[in-house]
Amino acid sequence: MGSATTQATAAATAALAAVPAVDIDTARELFAAAHAVGDSPQLSGALADSSAADSARSNVVAAVFGPIFQPATVTLLQTIVASRWSSASDLVDGIEELAIRAASLAEPDADVEGDLFRLSRLVAENPELELALGSRLGDESAKGALIESLLAGRASTAATLIAASLVQQQRERRVRQLLNSAMDLVADQRGRTVATVVAARPLSQAQSERLIALLSQRYGTTVSLNTVIDPTVVGGLRVQIADDVIDASVAARLADLRQRLAG
């Protein structure tokens, strides 16, 4: 990510935080905008053209989205295009990120991270489902409808919107990558960091609470846990936070011992 995009993303996030009330329609419209801009090289080029005047890019947003979106969404989009982005694709990613953050804000009490994690695990455990969602030949709207049917009554509106929107706008990205990135963004929006814990058996509530406390202290931030049950770890735990992996499983210790014995 270029420095221009980093600064533009920060400005967009700050603009979202300043919106008095963010509802699910704001998120839905931002996803629609990301889709529209991503599907149109002409539109994305015009909105990402830093040589054009800010007012010109703002007018394009007003002309394209003003008649169909609520004013708050149009204002957010105008703020986004007023910044300089490193590329047109970064602009599309920035709009999509803001949509995910808006969905998180729209349902603050929903377990959006957990819903996305469970869907990611479902996809990982079902190769046919992953193929159906990730196929370049599949109909985009059909992929969205499949997500909505899978999550109906099982997940929050925000998580369903995020997942259904992302599978229709993959742009060469893998489904699980999209879901995991969205999960991290939701956690970041809520001031948390997600830790994925792999264990041989489910953790008790007391174990989970102790682990959360230890990780929160170590990383200096509130940590939420997503647990994967994998009997092959034998015992102990493997914890991953972003690119940091803490492997205290028996399987890891045995593998290390075998390596040492092999010389």
General description of the model:
By secondary structure, this protein is α+β, with helices and mostly antiparallel strands. The protein has 13 helices and four strands. The protein has a four-stranded mixed β-sheet with strand order 2-1-3-4, with helices on both faces. Helix 12 links the parallel strand 1 (192-199) and strand 2 (222-229). The chain is elongated.
Summarize the structure.
This protein has 13 helices and four strands. With 263 residues, the protein is of the alpha+beta class.
Order of helices and strands: HHHHHHHHHHHEHEEEH
State the helix count.
Answer: 13
Helicity range: 55-70%
- Our Rg estimate from Cα atoms comes to 21 Å
According to DSSP, the number of beta strands is 4
β-strand percent reads 5-15%
Average pLDDT value?
91
Strand order, sheet with most strands: 2-1-3-4
* Structure classification: alpha+beta
N→C terminal distance: 42 Å
Main sheet, how many strands, which sense, barrel? Answer: 4 strands, mixed
Shape: elongated
Stretches with pLDDT under 50, minimum 5 residues: none
